[in-house]
Design brief:
- By secondary structure, the protein is of the alpha/beta class.
- Helices cover 29% and strands 26% of the residues.
- It is built from six helices and nine strands, in the order ααβαβββαβββββαα.
- Strand 8 and strand 9 form a beta hairpin.
């Protein structure tokens, strides 16, 4: 995603869209994209859109074959959207959020085994079996999940995000068009539509 965004010069338009306060939901790799800081990356790292005051660890739970499903307590989502107090989350080569800033609201976390390190700088595993990592957050106009709600029949996360969109109001569509037009102007190989 980052390579394509860089190749097509999308980063300026994406960053501007986030700064404009428009609702953005990043799932899995999208969470990494929205984070201000990412660890566990290959040498050289990747460019980020930023805006979400957190530190994310890429592939925290392991490779593709370590993908899993888990029941997550989601009290804030259940209070707002109804339904059961938990959500069956699908984690596919998922990141985890290790630290959040003061403006970030934690919506879900998950326990990690005592052998799994939570500190990305540490080379030793955690000694406490009570350690948790964050897997869903909201900060203003940004929603981010380390798991894939779109792979379940439970639509509460989607409903939650759509309510965020509704809160922005009617001004969203005109500003989305403005960002799109600015992107088109920055590209010489794309036609500009009025």
């Amino acid at each position: 995603m980052a390579k394509l965004a860089e190749y097509h010069n999308l980063f300026p338009a994406l960053r501007e869209f986030v700064k404009m306060g428009k609702p953005v939901w990043g799932t899995c790799a999208g969470l990494i994209f929205l984070a201000n800081k990412a660890t566990g990356q290959k040498s050289g790292g990747q460019e980020l859109i930023g805006g979400l005051d957190c530190t994310v660890h890429r592939n925290f739970f392991g490779s593709q074959i370590q993908s899993f499903e888990a029941e997550l307590p989601i009290p804030q989502i259940a209070d707002k959207e109804g339904g059961p107090p938990t959500f069956r989350a699908v984690f596919i080569r998922a990141p985890a959020i290790l630290e959040v800033g003061p403006e970030v609201v934690v919506l879900a976390d998950i326990p990690v085994s005592s052998s799994k390190t939570v500190n990305p700088e540490s080379t030793e595993g955690s000694t406490s079996s009570e350690e948790k990592v964050i897997v869903a957050v909201k900060q203003g106009n940004l929603l981010a999940t380390a798991f894939h709600p779109e792979l379940t029949a439970d639509t509460r996360w989607h409903s939650y995000f759509l309510k965020m969109v509704d809160e922005v109001g009617e001004g969203a569509s005109s500003s989305i068009c403005a960002v799109g037009q600015e992107f088109q102007k920055s590209r010489t190989d794309l036609p500009v539509y009025q």
